[in-house]
Design brief:
Helix content: 25-40%
Distance between the termini: 22 Å
Number of domains: 1
Oligomer: single chain
Number of helices: 5
Shape: globular
Strand content: 5-15%
Length: 172
């Protein structure tokens, strides 16, 4: 997990590869010390997303209201349980996204093919396990249709560019 990074409040439209990065361990340490709360991180990420001009990154997002409620629930859990919360929720407050070919309950799955769109009632095991571990799903990202391409240009939702470095394609 230590190799996984998140932008440290860098704009998702930024192509600056030297932007500071925060690992999962960094975020968990910030939560432990109280220097960061899930509600603050989610608020900042939502602001970044709204201010970016990178609409092609997302196919479907969890509503801001739902994300704020989930983050507030984690804030309260940390306040009540203290350090013990990290024993039961090892990914406490860690935001994540999945490609839109992975099912998330009540969010449409299109695999970048609108005609394929369906709304699953159950999340894929990987999503359910991440959420059970305390991670917060931000949404579903764009991909080449059915994840069959390599260069990121086969999506009706726009070219599939890297969310942090748009000069690169995300592939698949």
């Amino acid at each position: 997990m230590s190799a996984t990074t998140l932008p440290q409040y860098a704009s998702s439209a930024s192509s600056n590869s030297s932007a500071p990065q925060r690992t999962i361990a960094d975020l968990l340490a910030s939560y432990r010390t109280g220097s960061l709360k899930p509600s603050k991180l989610i608020g900042d990420l939502l602001t970044q997303i709204e201010q970016s001009d990178r609409t092609e990154v997302w196919i479907h997002r969890v509503s801001a209201k739902t994300l704020k409620q989930q983050a507030a629930a984690l804030d309260l859990m940390l306040q009540i349980k203290g350090e013990a919360v990290f024993d039961t929720l090892p990914l406490f407050g860690i935001p994540f996204a999945v490609k839109d070919n992975i099912d998330v309950a009540e969010l449409p799955t299109t695999a970048a093919c609108p005609e394929f769109s369906h709304v699953p009632q159950v999340s894929a095991t990987v999503v359910a396990r991440l959420q059970k571990a305390g991670a917060l799903l931000i949404g579903k990202t764009n991909l080449d249709q059915f994840a069959t391409g390599l260069v990121g240009v086969r999506s009706p939702y726009g070219a599939v560019r890297n969310a942090l470095q748009p000069e690169y394609v995300s592939g698949g």
